Amino acid sequence: MLEARILAELRKIAGNINVATEPQDLVCYSYDATQMEYLPDAIVFPANATEVSAILRLANRERLAVFPRGAGSGFSGGSLPKGGGIVLVTTRMNKILSIDTDNLVAVVEPGVITGDLQDAVEKEGLFYPPDPASLRFSTLGGNVAECAGGPRAVKYGVTKDFVLGLEVVLPTGDIITTGGKTVKGVVGYDLTKLLCGSEGTLGIITRIIVRLLPLPETRKTMLAVFDSIEGAAAAVATIIRGRIIPTTLEFMDHSALKCVESQFSLGISAAAEAVLIIELDGERDVVEKQTARIGQLIRPLGLIDFKPAATAAEAEELWKARRLMSPALKKVNPDKINEDIVVPRSRVPDIIRRIEAIREKYGIPIVNFGHAGDGNIHVNIMIDRSIPGESDKAEEAVREIFQATLDMGGTMSGEHGVGLSKAPYIPLELSPEQIAAMKAIKHALDPNNILNPGKIFPE
């Protein structure tokens, strides 16, 4: 519980209506997609960098924890106020400030919804590629803080590849800018890249400059069904070796297909062991030629069915299996642990087989789907936490999955971040020296450890 004098200062900074302490409000900002829950002491909705700066100066003086939050849609507990403190919500800062069609950049505030920026720039014939699954409700500030990815990462990269500059309030309350509107710039350290993916531990983003591209002329979606996961993985490598880089290469393994088909009867062959959803974009004649070429390249790889969409409606129908995954998973078990491991593309079949062995060992349903083009697999461990011992088994399974991923030259997270959920496993991937170097950066910028404490590093 914050002292009355501190609440009075917060209300003076942000306005009475923009500070909340009622129990029902605190509950609304106590959780994210992880199902973990920690109650804050207060919620503040600042309107600009000046107000954010004043809040952080107050927090430093009083040694109060501040937890930055966008839409709260994260899968790692990165915005959760563990230990209590102030949740600083950036959703009032939600303006698209400019779209520069000459220089192909946009300037936005952190509370802008990702999909809203995409819609706005496409009206100008431009394109912002990063497309996390949460794009219709996640904010750009959160995307930058977590370095969000998405299906189009195989061709275009992730959020950090499109961030040119930032306005940031440091934990001490100082306001700085990093980068700028130019594509090139090598004066001093690249603080922009440091802050992308820093999970709100090094500063609070108050303005973002993003790079844009010309909008592709057309898009083509196709569904490829295989009789083995090895065939699907070989298809990914074969397509790329054939000098075709799809916009999207999504996959679902047998466990995912079985889950969706049993509930929604989409007509996918019972012999299917894996599915790829492949999408191309670019000039119309090139895309048509590449679509035909892909069909030729993957036919010898155990292909059961190949369906290119002729219309936007048909494309949406092909995406149906992928879009129905979340509701289908809810029927398996009530609780989900969603991990997002990454392995080299060629090791996708190996890690899937290893996960299947772990599933058998612990007797826990595990459903796999994700971004085959960059080896990013969403591993969904489905449990019922009300059953004694289920959570312990799941934790052991997660550790084994992470270790297997690292043994194959991979990483424990491609786009969800570390937050609270992966922090205990960080020593599996990072050496003590690496952790010490990161902690030194954190201490230099946040000497009192008031900004998003407890995240990333194991306690």
Your description of this structure?
This protein is of the alpha+beta class. The chain folds into 4 domains: 4-89, 2-Layer Sandwich (Uridine Diphospho-n-acetylenolpyruvylglucosamine Reductase, domain 2), CATH 3.30.43.10; 96-214, Uridine Diphospho-n-acetylenolpyruvylglucosamine Reductase, domain 3; 218-313, Alpha-Beta Plaits; 332-428, Alpha-Beta Plaits (2-Layer Sandwich). The protein is 35% helix and 21% strand. It contains 17 helices and 18 strands. A 7-stranded antiparallel β-sheet has the order 15-12-14-13-17-18-16. Strand 5 (96-100) and strand 6 (105-108) form a beta hairpin. It is globular and about 70 Å long. The protein starts with a helix and ends in a 14-residue tail after the last helix. The model has no long low-confidence stretch (mean pLDDT 96).
Main traits of this protein?
single chain; 459 residues; alpha+beta; Uridine Diphospho-n-acetylenolpyruvylglucosamine Reductase, domain 2; Uridine Diphospho-n-acetylenolpyruvylglucosamine Reductase, domain 3; Alpha-Beta Plaits; 4 domains; seven-stranded antiparallel β-sheet; five-stranded antiparallel β-sheet; 17 helices; 21% strand; globular
